[in-house]
Amino acid sequence: MIAGTHDGIGYPDSVFRTWAPPQGGILLSSPTPAEPVSLTIDDMPVHFYGMSWNPGASKPPFDEFNSNGAPGFHIAMLHGSLDAAANWELSSRDVPLKLASLQQTGMDYVALGHYHSVKIHPGRPTVAYCGNTEGKRFGEEGPRQFLHVVLEDGVDPIVTPVVCGERVMRDINVDLHNLSLESEHALVAHLKTLADKKDIVRFTLVGDPGIKLDIERLAAELASAFYHLEIRDKSSFLSDSSVLAARDEVSVRGQFVRRMLTLIEASTDDEEKLGLDAALREGFRAFGGEA
Fold it and tell me: Are residues 115 and 179 both part of a single domain?
């Protein structure tokens, strides 16, 4: 195993100052890829190259090391940023790596960490991110996995993603306009069908529900149906009778509503419309409206 840039072994509060690998585990503690740790596994020599991030000691280039040429398999382990976009400003702490350089190292397999999605560059060496085994934030939806890698003489590594993880994160947009809701209870029943009890879920409500919604009450009624639940309310209430009635008022509130409706109708950007709608909602409430 290696220490990444978030838990570098040089940090005062690094986990590796108080935790040691279990029996049989080996931490590749060199601050740069150096001489490998060589093991014999099923009568086959296997050489592990790697680095653990150590601020002040880990310095680029991180991808210009080479196999020592010994018989057996050669595997590298690095926590870094592979072929980052040209407009990204990378520091040494980002451990910048180039695929072309890693392909010249003489490795059989290069295992990468840092990015949270699976990315496999086949060949010899195969260079691959396994992603993370549990979703860390919304945006990392669906089943997570690790990689099972088979090395054999004379052929490219065989890499197979294996689904794992206790929880699945789901970020779900719900268009209320298309549901033709008759009651908040009907919405609760519908949302319960969209994910499993073990899931970590975020519902984003969009569109016009046609009825008034109490988001706090909705979340409370749904809480037991999911392991964790968040609700983002981006719904529109432009057909709400109280808003439409206020539009015709000879008042500051009426002037505000008319102005906001004009801006919303003129906008051609969906995100802008959502922002204007939210502003209308908050303003209407501030004027004593019920929406």
Answer: no
pLDDT tens, N- to C-terminus, the chain (291 residues): 999 998 899 899 999 988 888 888 999 999 999 889 999 998 999 999 999 999 989 999 999 999 999 999 999 999 999 998 777 777 778 899 999 999 999 999 999 999 999 999 999 999 999 999 999 899 888 889 999 999 998 899 999 999 998 889 999 999 887 787 888 999 999 999 998 889 999 999 987 787 778 899 999 999 999 999 999 988 876 555 667 778 888 899 899 989 988 998 899 887 788 788 778 877 877 887 554
Same domain for 199 and 280, yes or no, is yes
User: DSSP letters of 238-270?
Assistant: TT-HHHHHHHT-SSHHHHHHHHHHHHHHH---H
Establish if 163 belongs to a structural domain: no
Residue 266 in any domain: the answer is yes
pTM score of the predicted model: 0.75
Domain carrying residue 30: 15-131
Residues 96 and 175 in one domain: no
Domain count, the chain: 2
Q: Is residue 1 part of a domain?
A: no
Separation between Cα atoms, residue 128 and residue 72, nearest integer Å: 20
Residue 141 belongs to a domain:
no
Structure tokens at 279: 């502003």
- ∠183-188-189 over CA atoms, to 5°? 95
Structure tokens belonging to residue 223: 């809480």
